[in-house]
Amino acid sequence: MKLKLLVPVILSILIVNPSYSVSEQEFNEMKELLQNALIKINALEQAQKQNLSNSKSNVITKADKLSINTSGGGIKIKSGDQKFAIGGRLMMDYDNMDSGHQTENKSFSDMEWRRTRVNIKGSVNKHWSYKATWDFLSEGDKANLDEGYLKYDTTKGFYVTFGKTKADMMLEQRTSSKWISTIERGLLNAMNEKVNYLVGKPGDGAGIKLGFYNKENRLSGALSVYDAYKDDTDDDNDIIWHTTARLNYSPKIGNEFAHFGVSYGLADYKGEAANAELQIGIHQGDKTMLADAAAGDITTWGVEAAYVSGPFSLQAEYFDNDTELVNGSKGYEWDGFYGQLSYVVTGETRGYKWKGAIFDKIKPKGKMGAVEFVLRYEDISIDDADEGTVAASEVDVDRTVVGVNWYVTKTVKFMANYSSVSMDNQANPGGTNEDLDSAQLRAQYAF
Predict the structure, then answer these.
(1) Which helix (H) or strand (E) element contains residue 412?
(2) Co-location of 299 and 253 in the same domain
């Protein structure tokens, strides 16, 4: 570049200063040399510019592959097939209940943090992914690992999951607590905490899940084997394996779709306690022991169905549990069902993920958010309770719930529920036979 600037200076000196005069032949030779030098300099400059342009282009291309999304309070980072995200949920509840919900038999109202969870999830490539969720409402000062697994997906319709995660049982239990339509899941799920495969909880153990999905036919399913029991006391029975299987079909026609599913579970409890212990529709209420047994084999099965057409949705499930005593004699059997109607008056549709066969969030379209009205009825019965169980006759529990949900944004949600429960042949936690009414409010932030 400097030589190029000197060319006109040299020529000017040769022209205006006679002491530097040369012959015409020498002048032409010098001129030719300088012209050749200029050509080479121009070529070098062009090459330099091209290299600089390529360097900048490479940097921009790499930057274009990296995306960072912080909308909603969480963070999502993506670079090609590699992904990483931080999310969570905060749920604050207010409960107001009749006296029968408490063993002290007095009316009760209080607020509580229902869930405070943080999770990380991501993928290493198109095959390997992971997720871990910590619950900060666990007993003690330490956060509890609520869920943690490693997943391998063949990308050809099959996957395997290793670790602590929900077993595949029941539509409502598989649907995230963030996106169910009532504040609490139904009586089928609240029936028993210890029989973890019944309610889909992973307990303190872990296991393996084999699953498949077929996009063309919208079929999905999974077979799971897990450590079933989280409060076992016999050192010789540390691991109580349970097996679950679930198959789902989710046909879609235009903007309408349906959901059909069946599930089956089997476990040998080796004499551990299997309590039919019910929390009657409200988390801060006390529990009622309906049946108890030193259990042997426990067999469950269920059917599930749903239909969604625009803002309208129907959802129903039936579930059956047959618990034998450890000596092989009959212990107790309970079964139940629920039916739920939902209508989004602002026109939005309930979200749905067909691969997992679960409901997802409602995404509000307008500035004022989405409003959903919910009506639900459910019933469970304890039958044939024989010797070795607490209950001595058939117990029947009915519950009706009406609710309204306001989805302010994709992450902020407010809920209000009113619930009425009646029990036959069983006293409520307060020791009376009166029906139980309760009102609940929830403020939720899910990111």
Answers:
(1) strand 412-424
(2) yes
Q: Which amino acid, 279?
A: Q
On whether both 250 and 364 belong to a single domain, the answer is: yes
By residue range, what is the domain housing residue 40?
Answer: 2-61
Claim: this prediction has a pTM higher than 0.85: no
Report the chain's mean pLDDT, rounded to a whole number: 82
Residue 329 banded pLDDT, cuts 50, 70, 90: confident
Q: How many C-beta neighbours within 10 Å does residue 336 have?
A: 23
Residue 87 has pLDDT above 90, yes or no: yes
The contacts found for 241-246 with CB under 8 angstroms, 24 or more apart, are 241/207, 241/267, 241/268, 242/167, 242/196, 242/197, 242/266, 242/267, 242/298, 243/267, 244/167, 244/168, 244/169, 244/197, 245/168, 245/221, 246/168, 246/169, 246/221, 246/222, 246/357
Based on the domain organization, do 107 and 29 belong to the same domain?
A: no
Q: Are residues 366 and 267 in the same domain?
A: yes
CATH of the domain at 385: 2.40.160.10
